[in-house]
Each structure stands twice: as structure tokens, then as C-alpha cells.
Amino acid sequence: MFSVLKKESRGNVFIKNFFLFFPPVILWVYLFRAFLYDQAMLNRDAWNAYQYINFYIHNIVHGVYPMWNPFFAWGRPNLLHLRTIGEFNPFFYAIPLLKSLGLSVTLSYFIFMVAYYFLGLAGFYLLVKRLTRDKMAAYLAFVLLAFSILGRILFSSPIVILLFVPTVWFFYFLFAFAQERNKLFFLGMTFSVMLIAITYVPFYFLTIFLILTICLGVFFFRDAVSFLGQCLVFFKSHKVFAGSCFLLAVLAFVPGFLWYQSTTAGEYYASGHPVGQPAGAVALKAIAASGVGGWIDLEHLLGGIRRKEINLFYVPIFSYLLLWISIGNFLSKKLMVIFSAGFCVLLIILGNLTGVHKFLYEHVVYFKYFRNLHFFAWMVLVPVFVLFCAENFRLFMGRLSGAGLKKYPLLGFLFFMHLVFAAILYWQKNTVSAAYLTVFLSFFSFCFYCISKRPLRPWVWAFILFAVTVLQPIEIFSKVNVDDEQPADTSSQGRFIFNTHFSFSRPKIEEESDVDKSIAFMRDSSGVEAKKEGGKNIYRGTTRGYFLSESVNQNVLKEYVCHKFIIYDRVLPMEDADFDFKRLEQMLVKIENAAFVSGGYKAEGRGDSKSSGELPLLAETVSGNEPNFKVLHFDANSIKIRTHFDSKKFLVYNDSFYEGWRAFVNGKETKLWRANYAFKGLWVPAGESVVVLRFGMWWQYAVNYFLAGVFILVFIILIWMGFKNFFGSQLLMKTKES
Amino acid sequence: MRQRLEVKDLTGRIISLSRRVGVLYLIAFLCTASIISKRNFRADRLDYLKPPLVKLVKISQGQESARPEILEPYIEFYEKVNEYAGSGADILAVLGFCCYYYGDEEKAISFYEKAVVLDPGCLWPQYNLGVIYFKKGFYSKAADSLEQALSIPPDVTAKSLYASFIYWQLMKEAKVLDGSIAVGIKEGYEGCYRLLMLSYQKLQDYQKMLNLALYATKSVPDSKDFFYYYAGFAAYQLKEYRQAVYFLLESLRINPRQADVLQYLGLSYGELGEKRDSEDALARALGLRRSNPQESPAQTEKNINVRLF
Fold first, then answer.
1. Do B45 and A294 touch (CB under 8 A)?
2. Do B72 and A295 touch (CB under 8 A)?
3. Contact A20, A463 (CB under 8 A)
4. Cβ-Cβ contacts under 8 Å, B172 against chain A
5. Chain centroid offset of residue A723 CA
6. Is residue B36 part of a domain?
7. CATH number of the domain residue B277 falls in
8. Which residue range(s) make up the domain with B224?
9. How many CB atoms lie within 10 A of CB A14?
């Protein structure tokens, strides 16, 4: 198609590509423009991702690797959320860079996400180009995917995009490496694997990889064996390089492994995961519920939209039309591999509709550790479907070009197929008018291509394809995105807040809607009812925090946890086995002057020699820095306080108790007790003392900072190698020409 | 030789056809269809289609206005339930409810008529059918349905509601599973009496109206004033003026601020020749109408509507 470009310099190619890709990018930004002025609707998952990423970035920029999050659910370990986003991804540093240019946090985040999405699309374009060896098919695949459901996923489940981008690039580098054994591609593969490995669900990728390996092994057995042989040769000739890459890939799995280890104690609880088991384990029923069987609806698939709701698998209608007119294409091995891989994934994501997922759950260990089967639909099914369309398009265009005298019967065939397709659309209820226009324009475009005496200029044909593809998405996204825009009064001010500063009290947030509740929960809120959403529990935090919120009156708890610090004169031991929540509730109502302490505390303790009768009835709450109590330092992982008590006191910090927290008083490590069932407490002596509470061991921080550095380094090397490769090949081309 | 060539040609064509993409689609479709559990598929579809029931309950309770765009998903969902689970009286009754508020009264009547055949032991389909007929002006049909509804004992209705999973889900959403469903049933029977009374009035069957009103004064003690008024009204129409005065005075004793009652009391006194009492009652009626034009037993008609339970 674009063979003429082969003779052109890379610079010219770049300019031509720019003009080729400029319209789809601009149109996409226009359709999703709400994000530019902070009006984009974010659902709960998108909120979470936004909060997790920004919380991490804010801390890391200030030199703190946030292992703990004191603002969520009364304090909880942050590792799960770091695993969700894959915190070492060096692309995240674009956010503070954009912020330093004067952009708001929100806009910086959105620009980063959109750019990252297009980076994935660029990878997809290159992958399709590698596989089909046809630029036009690759361009069509790019446009189809850009205007598919993936564009919306950005604002609903950005985690999928964070997984999709490295996955696409991995396969690009893999196929590029299969075609030419180049260090760049191998390092690219390694880096993609590293990015995937640091997320908590590398299993989506693993599944796709295994399925594709099997399919390739079946249909391209000889090539696969030959490729493996060539890989061995490559490894032998680049032992150090290959060994380093292997080591880097293994290293990237360390954070995930450490997180898994930390959850095995059962101190962390996430809804949908069985209590007492590692937080990763998910019940089969919960996974089956995330199957996509309910979405199978021809009307919704073809219509793309129903009652302003976009289909889970939405792809522009032109792709269905392409498949329809391509039913006469001859099957190729390539088509079979793409189809088989997609079909296998489909059988898995149908959940309990087929026995495939149940079988894998029972026999393949890692299938127990991830749910959200519909992520496969977005990460794999839609791109594979688009790839299948692109390959079919290539084959069909081959038939059109080589039709010769048979072009008139082919035109008749085209007319018939388009007519039938239009009839099917008419038969559906929710067809948008642009769909008919797509069919009409598609017919004329193919006819025009077929009967034109001179071959069409590639850029003209590319523009025609772009126009035909985007007609229906324009109508669909215009309808859906406009309806999704956030009302002005709830935007800007309160929407994108994540906590970073210490405060002595937690705000009481009474929220009405489910989304707001979720947001309140993520802020430093005392509202324990915020953990409920639509009758379902969405708790993610410490197990004891969960049990406490389930066992004690929520209004009482809400009042109590408003205070971050409470100073008691005495403690009462009470173990979990016979914990009296009613008694605790009574004590918490007035904040009586005795804290319940668990975890092997022996006798009733008192701070001084006064008898119980002489002690104040109520404990002292701290509402701000005072002469006898001052917070000297605070960050996500630690807090430093200076106290000046007249007698020995038991200080309760209403931040969740969790394994890994340590306390130091005047530089000496002190026993940290679990107070009032779920919080931290310690004895502080009379007189001036400096109390430090810290989460995690030094080596954990060292490992994480080291990994952050490694990721940046590998990324820089990859970019450097990429440039070297690019300019090196250009130089070679010039030398050959001269 | 020629035959052999033809066979070879045909075989070649078949092989060529079998290597087309369309055949792949067909095989994939057949494979998927054969391994998919239809039962689970239906359950998944229903889970996917199921809208939050809270809005439907709110519409029934008059807390939310019924707009077609709100009702569309419910109609689609319950039609699917009807398709998958087979026609049940409860499903049809809920569909009738949705269609009525959607604005498709004919369809609503059709669903309710089927529902009452399938489950004659539930008040609500009969009652709602009566309401729709009444609103459409088919008073005779409305009276028949409402008479049928009144013949159903309340405990049979309660049993029918609790036995239905469809109703159970809705009642759970309405938070009436604790037994307060009985309050709704009681209101339903009261509504039945009132509407039947109005149907008889429209049909000018005053004897039946009088009998029903007198019966209702005992069955529905909370609304004695209303039924005494209609007893008085029916007696007036039957020219039993002395009886009419007695019933109307009984009604006024319970609620003295009823303009309609005073009006017919004045008219009855007039017919009996008691001019002074007549003028006095009519003047009071006029005064009440001026001060509070809304308060009237005749307003009942507007307050009665189709309900879920």
C-alpha cells in the first residue's frame, strides 16, 4: 500500500505519519474533551486509580515511598494499591512534570492517561503493521481501536489501560524480535514484562501469553521451533545482556511476591475475598459474577448504545461490516491463530456459561487470584477482534485489487452484503442513524476503490477509511460522553481531592450518593457507613477495622474516630476471643478514661499511683498542637510527636494497628499495643518525650527505592537504544543510497 | 472420465468453500452454542438487565413521577423474566403496572387480565384492573373487577404476595417484609370499596351503592364518614330523604367539614320541607367550598391509582 514511502527518508515518513494520525487523535480528544476542563465523569474504579496514582506521585516526589496510607479506611497498608497501579512505571513521572508546567493535578493526570492510551495505540499500530505487513490495515486497526470501548475505559477502569499498554508493547517487541534478533526488542520485551509484573494482576497477561503460545505452537509449529532455536543462539551470543534482562524480569516480580507474603497473615481484608486467606484469593462465585454472559446481545453489540449505555465490547460498526463482507476470504494460518486466541479468551470470560473458567480455576493455580473477567474483554478481546478485522481487511483488499474482470460480480456481492447488513441494522431497535451512513459510505468507498482506473493515493484511501470508521463512533460518543459529564457544581472543588497533610481530626462526611460515599471513604473520613455501596460492602483495609465497623454502632464509631489522638490514664486488657464489643461501644460513646488493649497485655494498667476514683472520668482528646502535645513530623509512613505529660499516659493513635508498625520513645523501641480493638496505642512516660511511630523495615524501603531506580534506568536505556536503532538504520540507508 | 472430472471439480469447490472465513464463524458459533449453559446464560442476562427496583417501588408509592424512560428498563427486564420463567401471575401483574405508567393502558389491561386468570387469589391485579377500567370510563367492567377483588380474603392476598419471588424482591426493596405489607393490603381493600362505590355511582345503581356503603361502614371503620356520605347520597337518589338525612348527619358527626355532605343534607332537608335547616346546610356548604374547595369525598377518584402492592 504504502510502498512508495519505503524510498522516502525517515523524516518524510514521520511528517506523513503525523498528518495521517493527526485527525484521529484530534477527533478523539474532541469527543472526550470533557477531561480537558475537568468535567469527565469518573466511576469508582477510575476514582481509585486517580487517588492511588496521585497519592503515590505526591509522596515519591517528596522523597517518601508510601507503604502506608493513613487517609484511607482509618489507615491501611498501601501495597495493594501500589500493586494495582504498578508504581514503578516511569511514565508516571510525566504527571509531576506536567504539574511543574503549571497544570492542575487533575489535568496533568488526564493528559498523562490520554497520552499513555495513545502510546498503547501506537504500539498496537506497530504490532498490526508487523503482523499484517500492511500499513493501511495497521492504520485501520489503530482507528478502530482508538474509537472502541477502550477510549471510555480510560475514564472508568484506567487500570485496564495500565495493563493494556505494556501488554501490547510486549507483543510488538516479541514479534519484532521474532523477525529480527535485535537487542532493542529483547530489552523492550523485558521492560514490558517488568511493567506488567509490578501490577498485582500479571495473570491477565500470563493467560494471553499462554493462549497465544499454544495457538502459535499449533499453527506455526515449525516456525516456533525454529524461533526457539534462534533465541538460544541469541542468548548464547549475548549471555550477559540476556542474563541481565532475565534478572531484571525476575526482580520485577519481587514487589508482588512481598505483597502476597504480607497478606497471608490475614490482617488485610478486601471485600469479595475470603477472610483469613491471602487477600489475592477470590471465590469462584465472585469471579463468575464478573463474566460477560449478560452482555451478549446482538442489538446492543450492533447498536453500540442502548439507553445511553455503551456496550462492553463496543467497536465501531465498520468492523462488523468488514467481517461481514469478508466472509468469503480464504482462511490463513495467521487468521486461525488470531481467531483461536480470541475464541479461547471468549470461552474464559463467559464465566459460568461455559465450564472453561471453572476448569481453569480448579486446575490452574493462578486463576484463583484474579477476578474481573471482563477486563479480558477490554484488554484482549477487543484488540484481537480489531486485529482480526485488520487482517480480513488486508485479505479482502487483496481480492478487490486482484479482481480484474471479475470486479463486476464482486460489486454485486458488495451491494448484496451491504444491503443485508443495512436490513439487519433496521431490524434492530437501537441503531443510530450514523450506522446507516457508515454502510452507505462503505459501499461507495469499496466500489470507488474497485472501479477507479488509477490506484488511489494511499493518503486518500486512508482518509476515506478514517471517515467511514469514525462516523458511528462520533454519534455514539457524542451521546454517551455528553450525558456522562459531571454537573458543574460538583466538579473542580471537591472532586479531585486526595489527602496529604496531617490533621488532628477526621472530618465527618455525610454523603448521599453511592459514588460520593466511595469518595468520602477514600478521603480521611470518619464515616464508616461510607464503606457500604449500594448495599454491598466495598471495604478494603485492615481486617480488625472491618470487624470493628461491623460490630460497633456506626454513629458511635464515627464520633470516636474523629479524634486522631486520645490520651488515656489506664488500660483494660481484652483479648479477641472474648472481646466485648458492647462494652467497648459504651466506653467509646463518652470516650471513658480507659483503653482496651489486646495482644497479650497482662494486667490492668494505670499511668500513675492515683486510685481509679481520683482519675478523670473521661480521656483527653487532642484537637491540635498544644504545649504538652505537638506533632513534629508526619508523612505517609511515620509520625513524630513531642509529648510533655505530667504522668505516664497511654496514647492511642486512631490509625489502624497492623503488623510492621514500630514505636520508639526517646529513641528506644517500645511495645506497640493494639488499642480499642483496631488502633495503635503505647505507654508514654511522664516528662518530655519524643514518640516516633514508623511503618516497615529499612530494607523494604531500600528494595523499593532500588526498584524505582532500576525501572528508570532500564527505561532510559531502552529509549537510548531506540534512538540509536532509529538513527543507525537511517545512516545505513543513506550509506546504501550513496 | 467426464464424471470423474465433475466429481473432482465438485470436491474442489467444496474444499474451497470450507476454507472460507464464513465457515469458521459458523463452526465457532455452533461450538459456543453447544457448550453454553442456557440456564446460566438466562440468569446472567437477567442480572445484566435488572434495573434497581427502588424506582419502581417509589413510583408505586407515589414518591417518584413515572416517566417512560424510567419504565423502559423495567418493562424490558420483566418481559425477559416472563420469557425465561414462563408466564406467572406475579410477573404479568408487575408488567401490567409498568405498562400502565408507561402509558400503554391496553397492554396493561391485557397483562392484568392474564394475571387474574392465573392467580385469582391476589387482590392487586383485580384491583388495578378495576382502577384502569374506571379511569377509562368502563364502569361496568370496573365494578365487576372490584367486586371480584373484594371477594378475595386479605390473608389469601398476603399469602400470594409472600409466595412470589418477584413480589418478594419488590417488597424487600420497599422494606415492607416485616409485616407492614398488611397496611398496604388494608389500604387496597379500602380503595376497592371507594372505587366500587364510585363505579356504582357512575352506573347510577343507587341500590347497590346504598348496600355497599352500609356494609363498608362496618368493614372499613376508618372511613365511616366517606361511606355514610355515599349512603346518604344513594338514599337521596332513591328518594329516601329521611334515611339520607340520617346518613349524612352521621358522616358530618365524624367530619363536619365536608361541603358535599352539607350540600346533599341541605337538598334532603329541602325535599322534606324543612326549609330553615336546608338553607342553613346549603349556606355552610357554600362557605366550606369557598374556604377549602379541595376537601371533598368526590376527590377520592383522583387519589386512587394503580399500585404494586
1. yes
2. no
3. no
4. none
5. 29
6. no
7. 1.25.40.10
8. 44-303
9. 11
